[in-house]
Specification:
Length: 274
């Protein structure tokens, strides 16, 4: 019952995002559907092959409708995560390389929040230790995929089958190199309070920087991320302890600062003297 309810909520959140994302003209809708479809296929090939090749993690049996090693719902979720970060990055920076880099960093941030909460809730589990049961390579994987996907799919003339073949290969190569070059030496149980303190050490100056620079993003692009954030914080309240809560709350101030700046710059200006 619990897993069925969680998956039902995920379906609703996906529906909200897709309804807004596809509320455009026919041309843009086709581009969006192509992007999401390619992201779904490439991410499934990449994730399924990673699970089969290395066995670092597995999904709980309570997920419905597996596509080999990956739940069908996950195949739909991760393209939305990447697409949302891609659109957000496109408003923050300019140039395909910068968008790919920032988009990858945003997905890394999303994964850093999602992974520990999902593991605490028993949605999936890792065989390697790390912060709150998640090894660093687990968070890096989706950032690598997202950055590669954005860089590759920005080239709209590229055949889709090329992206589906190249992206999983790219992820395998980078993660294997990262594991043997560094991450296998740092995959160890980390003290929860130290991780939470580290998250706040990043969040505070980032929030100050956002408040100073006041980058602008359409408020709708920020609001559409709220249902998923609310879902994971609700899941945190059900499954996480105080240390994980302290860690997760560090992700809130930068988002609020970005929202505040965007709302302020979107507000109509009242002429002086009126």
């Amino acid at each position: 019952m619990r897993m069925a309810l969680l998956q039902g909520v995920c379906v609703v959140i996906l529906g909200i995002y897709l309804a807004r994302r596809l509320r455009t003209g026919p041309g843009e809708r086709r581009v969006a559907l192509r992007r999401l479809g390619l992201l779904a296929l490439a991410s499934w090939v990449g994730e399924d092959s990673l699970i089969r090749a290395y066995g670092f993690y597995r999904y709980a049996a309570g997920w419905a409708l597996f596509v080999d090693q990956v739940p069908l719902l996950i195949v739909g979720i991760w393209p939305v995560v990447v697409d949302s970060a891609w659109r957000l990055a496109g408003h923050l920076v300019r140039g395909p390389r910068a968008v790919a880099l920032v988009g990858g960093c945003l997905v890394l941030t999303d994964a850093a929040l999602i992974e520990p909460i999902a593991v605490a809730a028993g949605l999936w589990s890792w065989s390697e230790p790390g912060l709150f049961g998640v090894p660093p390579i687990g968070m890096l994987g989706w950032a690598v995929f997202a950055a590669g996907a954005i860089a590759l799919l920005e080239q709209r003339r590229m055949p889709g089958w090329v992206a589906v073949l190249v992206l999983p290969l790219w992820v395998h190569v980078v993660l294997v190199a990262a594991w043997w070059g560094l991450l296998r030496w740092v995959s160890a149980p980390l003290p929860g309070w130290a991780v939470a303190a580290g998250a706040w050490a990043v969040a505070v100056p980032l929030t100050v920087w956002i408040g100073w620079r006041r980058p602008w993003v359409p408020v709708g692009e920020l609001m559409v991320r709220l249902p998923a954030a609310a879902f994971f914080f609700a899941l945190l309240g059900l499954s996480g302890g105080p240390v994980l809560a302290a860690y997760a709350l560090a992700f809130v101030p930068p988002y609020l600062a970005l929202m505040r700046g965007s709302l302020a710059r979107s507000a109509p200006q009242v002429p002086e003297g009126t």
